[in-house]
Amino acid sequence: MESDPMTAPKAARGSRAVSQPVAAPLTRAAIFLIVTVNPGSDNRAILRSFCGDLCALLRAVEFRDLEGGLSCVMGFGSNAWDRLFGPPRPAELHSFREIRADGRHAVSTPGDLLFHIRAKRMDLCFELATQIMSRIGDAVSPVDEVHGFRYFDDRDLLGFVDGTENPRGEAVIDATLIGEEDAAFAGGSYVIVQKYLHDLAGWNALSTEAQERIIGRTKLSDIELDDSVKPTSAHNALTTIADDGKEFKILRDNMAFGRPGQGEFGTYFIGYSRSPRITEQMLENMFVGRPPGNYDRLLDFSRATTGNLFFVPSLTFLESITEDEPAVMVPDAAPATVESAPSIPSVHDCSLGIGSLKGDIRHE
């Protein structure tokens, strides 16, 4: 059985940065837990101490079912990073940028810490979330918690397969993990999360053909529509980001969630990438349009109710943190590398250097 990155021993790491399990296999269940950090130096100390203890907590719960595929990714918002760690900062960490366009709104909501907990069984996710909150509950305030599940045939509640175009194999590393472009934070990743609520009654009133034109794929067979019939406003057309023939991917691990008794049906979007600009450009294309006005018609039936951007530092970084001392950073003379990762071209040198992706993406 392969060693989980979250449980890899400190020995033999040297200066190599071991990533958190960003690319863990897709599972049947997940909990997305977002909290804010309460004021006070004592709370800061509790959370800094917890960073190094997360792996031990995970191992204790994981041992109850070693085949359960339990993993946890911990991410930090921009404000929380400044409060907990200070400089240096990950190069592209900032607060989630809201987008407004003709009534469509990608909201920005509070959130300092993200825990993305995954397993084959919800009880494992539930137990780990319970233990995490037992450990840090006095230091934080919960702002959002979603229990997600994998729907039939890996579909979302709209009836379409979700995540077909996820990168696979070594391409996952290239898509999600920071390399030499921000060497002090190599092995880290950026993650954007949004909670979408669906108007299922309105969606289901559409014909299958109309739904397929909005998504850009066939509903039953999950085959991408030919460009000759696929609208330029199709969801998969607007979320395709390419430069000079090279397509830039993100890793999605979206989950369905809902409360039928409350009429709540949704999709929790979570996208990991080595640069948040990739996902931000996807969202701008969806909400504003490419060109402006040619927006994602899926938004006529789906409403974003949360929005957050987090940085996921390497496991090596987390385990170097003590209650009082600064996190141990890799010296400039010996920049960190990503364990088991191939050479990754710099995002700043040759990725996303076109159009509105140059520098910051700004929204009205």
Give your account of this protein's structure.
There is one protein chain. By secondary structure, the protein is of the alpha+beta class. Helix content is 25%, strand content 22%. It contains ten helices and 14 strands. It has helices spanning 41-62, 78-84, 122-136, 170-176, 200-204, 208-215, 235-238, 276-287, 315-320, 347-350, and strands at 29-37, 71-76, 99-101, 104-106, 113-119, 140-149, 189-198, 241-243, 246-248, 251-252, 255-259, 264-273, 302-304, 308-312. The strands form four sheets. Strands 7, 10, 11, 12, 13 and 14 form a six-stranded antiparallel β-sheet that branches. Strands 2-5-1-6 form a four-stranded antiparallel β-sheet. It has a two-stranded antiparallel ribbon with strand order 3-4. The radius of gyration is 20 Å and the shape is globular. It starts with 28 loop residues before the first strand and ends in a 14-residue tail after the last helix. The model is unreliable at 1-14 and 328-364 (pLDDT under 50).
Q: What labels describe this entry?
A:
globular, 6-stranded antiparallel β-sheet, alpha+beta
Concise account of the structure shown:
The chain is of the alpha+beta class and 364 residues long. It has helices at 41-62, 78-84, 122-136, 170-176, 200-204, 208-215, 235-238, 276-287, 315-320, 347-350; strands at residues 29-37, 71-76, 99-101, 104-106, 113-119, 140-149, 189-198, 241-243, 246-248, 251-252, 255-259, 264-273, 302-304, 308-312. Strand 3 (99-101) and strand 4 form a beta hairpin.
